[in-house]
Amino acid sequence: MQHIFHLLLILLASTIISCSGQKKEELTPWGTSINGDTILPQADALSISEIQNNGELIMLTMSGPKTYYDYHGKNLGLHYLLCEQFAQKIGVSLRVEVCKDTMEMIRRLTDGEADIIAYPLPSSFAKEVRLCGVSTDSLKYKWGVNKDNEELAEKLNQWFQPQMVKQIEQEENFLLSARSVVRHVYSPMLNRAKGTISLYDQYFMQYAPLARWDWRLMAAQCYQESTFDPKAHSWAGARGLMQIMPETAKHLGLPMGNIFDPESNIAASAKYLAELNQHFKDVQHPIEKCKYVLASYNGGAFHIRDAMALARKYGKNPYRWADVAEYVLKLRSPQFYNDPIVKHGYMRGNETVEYVDRIMVRWEQYRGVAHPGSFKFGNQVPHKASHRNRFNIGFKD
């Protein structure tokens, strides 16, 4: 018996020795590991029915004026709007994943992370993805789907019609124009002789201190937003005197049923301005901070931070609005919105810079309402203000 036990030990030892020079293939939940290298399984492309069952079409693209960008809280861009129409056609929602370059889009598509590349790809990529669907500039540039996804490619080819491009461009041009905001234009000054700016001056006086602002600055912003029309509304969903977006209203605790109420709308806006003040607490100069807050109210704080990062990179002062405004404007150029330090892509910066400029000019005009005898609207002749009042805007004159 002891002899048999020793024999088994010898056989076991020889087996171990004979296998010591070999590495066994090991299966894991993430793939097959061979000689220490993990090989991921090739992802299968989802069929149309699987996309519909998931309820979501995942789109890859890059930031740009013709592809995809954020505008006042809404997504725009020719290729995004076309892809949104296709998603609606097959009855699903659309999720956008923004990539830094073409190779990232190709990699993520072939890895099964998305369903479609909604970006004009040249014919040189035909070996890596299946080109199909939308063609905007020429037949050499099309969208892409997984090489094996013949069904989705065929569906896109059947759906797309060249006239769609012109229709979408016309729609987008309308949305970006003043015609897309429904409002009655009121006078920028209700009663010049009495120094009354609007019917809502009492609310500006009451709530502007929440943001540590001069109430007349808030009035100037209100005129830029709605021309003092409490029922103003835009295609993007902005509502009321201060054009508050539904998501912002929800964040601020403003019920949608009260969004057109003048006092509620102004109070919520003052709360939002106070939040933006905190976001830019690193901007020390109070007048400069006002400009950053106004720019963020219009164009989004993340875009303004991108412009500040660019200003710093190119040797300008990130806390001086005149320097930062230069890069807000440059965020329309691929050289700048594709810069690695830019996190939020393309921006229609000219509108934001103009928005800040117009409000600051009108505020200078409104600063004379406390002394109506010296105030003449339209010629930009403000009353004389002390140095303290000019820069400590939380105080009244």
From TrEMBL:
Matches recorded under InterPro entries: Lysozyme-like_dom_sf (IPR023346), Transglycosylase_SLT_dom_1 (IPR008258)
Q: Where is the Transglycosylase SLT domain?
A: 211-317
Superkingdom assignment: Bacteria
Q: Which SUPFAM superfamilies match?
A: Lysozyme-like, Periplasmic binding protein-like II
Family membership, please give it: Belongs to the transglycosylase Slt family.
Name of this protein: Transglycosylase SLT domain-containing protein
Originating organism:
Prevotella illustrans
